Amino acid sequence: MKLGFVSAILPDLSFEEVLSTAKSTGFDCVEIMCWPVGKAERRYAGVTHLSVGEFDQAAARVVTQQVADSGVSLSGLGYYPNLLSADLLESEVAREHLLRVIDAAALLELPVVNTFVGRDPKKSLNENWPRFLEVWPAIVKHAESRQVKIGIENCPMLFSEDEWPGGKNLAHSPAVWRRMFEDIPSDYFGLNYDPSHLVWQVIDPIEPIWEFSSKIFHAHAKDARVDRARLNDVGILGTPLQFHTPKLPGLGEMNWGRFFSVLGEVGYTGPVCVEVEDRVYEGTLDGRRAALKQSHDYLRNYIPSWSE
Fold first, then answer.
1. Helices (H) and strands (E) in the chain, counts
2. What is the pLDDT of residues 240-274, one digit of tens each?
3. Could you tell me the end-to-end alpha-carbon distance of the chain, in angstroms, rounded to an integer?
4. What is the rounded CA–CA span in Å between residue 264 and residue 209?
5. Contact of 294 with 287, CB cutoff 8 Å
6. E strand or H helix at 153, and its extent?
7. Is residue 200 within 8 Å of 244, Cβ to Cβ?
8. Angle at which helices 15-25 and 285-299 pack, to 10 degrees?
9. CA distances (Å), 253 to each of 14, 240, 303, in order?
10. pTM of the complete model
11. Which residues are CB-neighbours of 161 under 8 A, at least 6 positions away?
12. What is the sign of the dihedral through the CA atoms of 117, 121, 124 and 129?
């Protein structure tokens, strides 16, 4: 396995500075954010460390050299919009940009692009499913043609009132993953596995690794603390941020020893990238760098630096 981080936490740094930060902190790799250039509508979105709008072979050669010179690697490219938005223009813009991200990954010879499936939060799972089957098979075929895998992160995107009650990402649970992979049975369609999102849903964050081992293309390392007193007050029908808090690895409820033990047993050898969303550290660039350093040092107990 390789230890990395998600570049979204460093929006004020350039691509080269992100790579330099990774190297100086001791990370092996970075998941690079590839949002369209422009203003973000939510936290951790809208970060563009690699612009893919006019990306071609010449640009790929430049990036490849920058990566080689840095001494770290890229775990993949990341872009996390709502591809099944009820706003059809938003959905189409996201689809077109995702295809460009996949093309850029192919030019860079990267193995994976990470994203969300998307969802209309006002509709049920079954009501969303026809649209999922309308939009996603063509995207997966495009990825297959470029030999780039798609890793769907399992975040429900259910944090604010406009995402209530269904969230903005269908792929939140093992039951949904099973259905997705049965309906789109491709070796290029899988998971960017983030255990923290299972913690606050009261799902065992480790047990699904056994069933979905062949579908885990990439992984995130983020922790979550569930406040039982708040949960007792608002119940499971409260919005999730009323009773849980994203934390750095080791500061929440995850059993990281068991997590990495099972990942290793199922044969996973890919990247595990720290995703910093702990607001305690977000106030300054120094604080965010400190969060990366703390996470790196903690997780090196489970991914030694010589690991391949």
1. 10, 10
2. 888 899 999 999 999 999 999 999 999 999 999 99
3. 6
4. 10
5. no
6. strand 149-153
7. yes
8. 40
9. 33, 15, 19
10. 0.95
11. 239
12. negative
